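Whether sequence alone determines local backbone shape is best considered at the level of individual chains. The sequence in question and its structure tokens are set out directly beneath this paragraph.

===
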Amino acid sequence: MESTVDVRGMQCPTPVTMVANAVSKAKVGSTLTILTDDFICFMMIQRILKILNVEIREAVQIDDKNYRIIVAKNREIT
């Protein structure tokens, strides 16, 4: 199952919380695409994903203002 978490236009900590909640609710085997336009959020979201032990498949700047993170939830988060 694939889903997108679009947090463009938001400032931390709201996007970090939204991403953590989305990952927690996602089923094992799911792929999530996260979109942000804030570099600080881009970095903080990656940090929380590492803490949650979620596989980051891609973390890139896609244009002058936007960033994309693609993750896979391979196990339940405890």
